[in-house]
């Protein structure tokens, strides 16, 4: 059965992005530092056509991100800084002409736009009729593989509130951001029905794995 999975890196004080996202600060001010552990791994670098990188525990976790993933869902904030109607802007994501997804990517938005094919097998589809519709389309596109849920925090919160997330991996780094977007907010309490089934840690980051009870 197709599962909806997500992984996010979180600061010690609960933030997954810094404040004031902009073209200069895609992850908000200070947010880039959350992901230094991932940037250092061989798997992350390979996903972005770069050589080298560290192996070991953190690399092992990064290597699983695209395993058995057939489609991706993300919020408009993750796709880019453009707000309101798309207009004549040719924005096609933060990742250049060859994004690392290599699948269909479904972007949640209030403003319609034609699909945007990219190099390497990625096509961005823009979904205006809600999270369930995006998931239904992503499951169909995944062809029996799992669906990856990208950011940002508000998108993850919508799927958590709806009880649609099957697995989540939270990477907690020893960084205090002090402001930004928290993952576990606007949920009417903690996410219900999840069990921690794994915890491994390096000096740079602790990796927590949760599954929904009855979902595996």
**What form results from the Cα inertia axes?**
globular
Give, in spatial order, the strands making up the sheet with the most strands: 5-6-4-3-7-1-8-11-10
In round numbers, the mean pLDDT is 92
Estimated radius of gyration? 17 Å
Biggest pleated-sheet summary = 9 strands, mixed
**Element pattern in H and E:** EEHHHEHEEEHEHEEEE
Low-confidence stretches: none
End-to-end separation in angstroms reads 9 Å
Q: How many helical elements?
A: 6
Structural class by helix and strand composition: alpha/beta
- β content, as a range? 25-35%
By oligomeric state, this entry counts as single chain
Helix fraction by DSSP (H/I, runs of at least 4): 10-25%
Number of strands: 11
Any overview of this molecule?
The chain is an alpha/beta fold and 216 residues long. The chain is 19% helix and 27% strand. It contains 6 helices and 11 strands. It has helices at residues 36-39, 42-47, 57-63, 76-79, 131-142, 153-161, and strands spanning 4-11, 15-17, 69-75, 104-108, 116-117, 123-127, 146-149, 167-173, 181-182, 194-201, 206-212. The strands form 2 sheets. Strands 5-6-4-3-7-1-8-11-10 form a 9-stranded mixed beta sheet, with helices on both faces. Helix 4 links the parallel strand 3 and strand 4 (104-108).
């Amino acid at each position: 059965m197709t599962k909806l999975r997500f992984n996010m890196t979180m600061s010690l004080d609960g933030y997954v992005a810094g404040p004031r996202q902009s073209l200069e600060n895609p992850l908000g001010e200070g947010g880039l530092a959350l992901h230094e552990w991932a940037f250092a791994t061989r798997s992350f670098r390979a996903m972005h056509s770069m050589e080298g990188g560290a192996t070991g525990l953190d690399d092992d976790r990064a290597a699983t991100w695209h395993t058995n993933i057939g489609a991706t869902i993300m919020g408009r904030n993750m796709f880019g800084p453009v707000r309101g109607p798309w207009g004549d802007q040719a924005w096609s994501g933060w990742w250049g002409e060859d994004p690392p997804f290599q699948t269909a990517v479904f972007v949640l938005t209030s403003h319609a736009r034609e699909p945007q094919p990219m190099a390497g097998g990625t096509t961005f589809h823009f979904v205006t009729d809600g999270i369930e519709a995006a998931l239904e389309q992503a499951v169909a596109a995944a062809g029996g593989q799992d669906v990856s849920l990208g950011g940002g925090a508000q998108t993850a919160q919508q799927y958590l509130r709806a009880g649609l997330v099957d697995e989540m991996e939270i990477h907690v780094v020893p960084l205090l951001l002090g402001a930004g977007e928290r993952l576990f907010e606007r949920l009417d309490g903690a996410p219900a029905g999840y069990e921690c089934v794994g915890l491994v840690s390096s000096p740079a980051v602790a990796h927590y794995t949760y599954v929904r009870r009855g979902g595996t």
